[in-house]
Amino acid sequence: MEFDEACERDTLIPSHVLPYLKNLEELNVHGCKSAKLIFDIDESEMMTYGIVFRLKKLILKNLLNLKCVWKETPRGIVSFPNLNIVIVHGCEGLVTLFPSSLARNLKKLETLLISGCEKLVEIAGKEDGMETTIMFEFPCLSYLKLVNMPLLSCFYPGKHHLECPLLEILFVANCPKLKLFTSATEAATEAATEAPISLLQHPMFSIEILVRRHKHFDLFFF
Question: If DSSP codes are grouped into helix, strand and coil, which group holds residue 56?
Fold first, then answer.
């Protein structure tokens, strides 16, 4: 399915339409100036509860007014476990890409490319009731590219662990606030300070783990 500049809707896929698109495998949205929301997931629509979508490829490009991809919803209402490729470019108003509950269920994600999203602060957003340390596991992710995002500061704004055992290419450019790596020593120092979570800048990866696991790992950092 494709939406282009001819589309003048602010919500591209309303909640009542979602159940009929559960077999959709590719969504390409580009140049829609009026688009503010991609998936409207209304918790009052009982027919959407528990739906597993087959979407494999999501491409969002040059959506200048996009505020949200997935409307914030109670955990478990829908899931997109088959997402394999996610490409987001030029979505200047986007602050968060994934709800954290959805990001924790992306076990088949292989490619994640995000660029030119000037207001993006975090990749996975924090949801109510998730105060403990959580685990994000991407067992298939091999290519991660983050480019030209001046406000991006973390993967997730709370205590968490990020596991990408098959990561082969990590490309990061012009993301000055993003702390990519931490060491065991730094982690121990941060824990000893007992600083509030909101005041800590959470690195994405442990440098020791990356070096130990990845013999053929390519890092591009500018």
Answer: coil
93 burial type by CB count under 10 A (0-12 exposed, 13-18 middle, 19+ buried) = middle
Residue range 120-149: mean pLDDT, rounded: 88
pLDDT confidence of residue 49: 60
pLDDT for 211: 56
- Distances in whole angstroms, Cα of residue 15 to Cα of each of 5, 12, 66: 22, 10, 17
State the CATH number of the domain containing residue 62: 3.80.10
Domain that holds residue 139: 2-221
State how far the alpha carbon of 125 is from the alpha carbons of 4, 74, 156, 212, in Å. 27, 13, 6, 29
* pLDDT 10s digits, 66-85: 999 987 655 657 789 999 99
Please state, in angstroms and as integers, the Cα–Cα distance from residue 8 to each residue in 12, 31, 140, 172, 218, following that order: 9, 10, 36, 33, 41
Least confident of 7-16, 60-69, 197-206: 197-206
Neighbours of 41 (CB within 10 A): 22
pLDDT at 201 exceeding the cut of 70: no
> How many domains in the chain?
1
